Amino acid sequence: MGVVPSPEPSAPSGDHPAGARGWEPLPLIVFAVSGLLLAFFAGMASVTRTAGVTHSNDDALYMLRGDQLTHLSYREEFKIEAPRHGQYPPLWPALLALTQLLTGGSEVARFALATLLMTAALALFFDLCRRLVPQWLALALLAAAACDPFTIISGGRVMTEAAFTFGQMLSLWALERAERMRDDERARRRSLVLTGATAITGALTGSIGVTLLGASLIAWALKRRWRSAIALAAVSGVALGGWLAWTMLHHEGVIGRSYIADAALLTPADPIARSSATPVVAAVRNVDNRVRMHLTDMISSGLPLPSIAGTVLDNLAWIVLTVGLGVLGAASAWRRMPALVLYPVFYFGLLTVWPWTPRRFFIPLQPEMLLLLVLGALELARRYARAPGRGVALALLAVVTAAALPQALTTARHTRTCDRDAPWSSEACDDADQQAFFRIVTFARDSLRHRLAAWSSGKRPSRIMRTASYSTPRLPSATPTTTSSATCERTGSSTSC
């Protein structure tokens, strides 16, 4: 059977290579290597997965929402009067509920779902990359993404990152396929429908998915696909408008538990605003801080890139490299897929003005940022004939992979001895903060009993009630102890600490 080679980067005019249509079989060696990389990722995510809910609030809240949806309810039963939940979109809890129904309530299956979705997202990422760059660079990109410790951890947690990343990759993959289906109108239309559908479901998985929806709309408008853009705007208006109406009717009005309240966080009563003459000045200062944080910390540590302790020279070098290659990569991607540029711009733009910016928000964009850097290196070679573009791209991916792999292996070695039948007494499962937290929750459950609902109305009620709902054999008995405050960085919570 003949094998069609992966297309080289497109011509400066942005035209796609002739014959880059339909499904192209992979060479056996590429299929084998990519399969091994995906299997490696799935295995690492399974080994390092959390033993249950953490003392972050979000994972427990998603699982409780999934439990409620199995009863066709979206209420917060752990709160007085059981109000309807109005913060997090319902799609990820709905997937957890479906998994629960299909597996008879298996908690392990919910973690397996996260691992499966993140692995599938990386498979789509590889297939997208091999259409934009040479296959050997696409494999290097897959290796760098599969070894990333943040992505591996997200593949083993019951958070939205896995489902959101999968939906994002499927949307971008379908959009790129639509760009290639110029001679097959029916296939192109199907791809456009898939792009729009996954963009809408992405926004119903994580609210930040509205950035992908906006990028798709503008990209279609730039391509003069007016009918597709109008149809997507109409359908998304109904779907997201319905959820927005629900949110406005049922939000708590408490910062950290309501996006409506979060959106109005900068008021004269807040510390940042009090230090400024007006809320506008406070907002500008906040944006300035976030931009510097994205450039100096979020991107460089999230990829991850190696650093040298005690000096800022490495930080400056990485900023120059990532910004320079990123701009060139954006110029290259703009000719082929404007949405590939608009999406991260909108995404980071929203994070720049949003009150909370934990590092886990960057996880869905990590593979795409690597792709833009590689496209930037190839664009450098296109513009300057003597520039070693492919060498720069390969060297960058090698450095990123070399920095990421030891971190991932260290985490795997530590967690592989986790006793998931007794996770809160196993040091390999939880850190000291989480063990202390779960011991005090266990004591409260056994001692306070009916007063637990009132006691749990503090900062993290969902994690307390989710923990207390476990059967007694899985909870160790303990005396009360003091739990220290954990940082947002360690817990990965999207709310304030």
Q: What would you call the structural class?
A: mainly alpha
The rounded Rg comes to 23 Å
The counted number of beta strands is 0
SSE order: HHHHHHHHHHHHHHHHHHHHH
Helix count, DSSP H or I runs of 4 or more residues: 21
Q: How much is the average pLDDT? A: 78
What spatial form do the alpha-carbon principal axes imply? globular
Percent of residues in β-strands: under 5%
Straight-line N-to-C gap: 58 Å
* Low-pLDDT regions: 1-21, 266-274, 453-458, 470-497
Question: Major beta sheet, specifics?
Answer: none
Percent helix range? 55-70%
Give keywords.
single chain; 497 residues; mainly alpha; disordered N terminus
Structure explained in plain terms:
Helix 1 (28-48) packs parallel to helix 5, helix 4 (107-132) runs parallel beside helix 16 and helix 8 (185-205) runs parallel beside helix 10 (226-250). The protein contains 21 helices and no strands. The chain is globular, with a radius of gyration of 23 Å. The protein is mainly alpha-helical. Helices cover 64% and strands 0% of the residues. Residues 1-21, 266-274, 453-458 and 470-497 have low confidence and may be disordered. The chain has helices spanning 28-48, 57-69, 91-103, 107-132, 135-146, 149-154, 161-180, 185-205, 210-222, 226-250, 259-263, 271-274, 279-302, 313-336, 339-353, 366-383, 389-415, 432-448, 452-455, 461-468, 488-491.
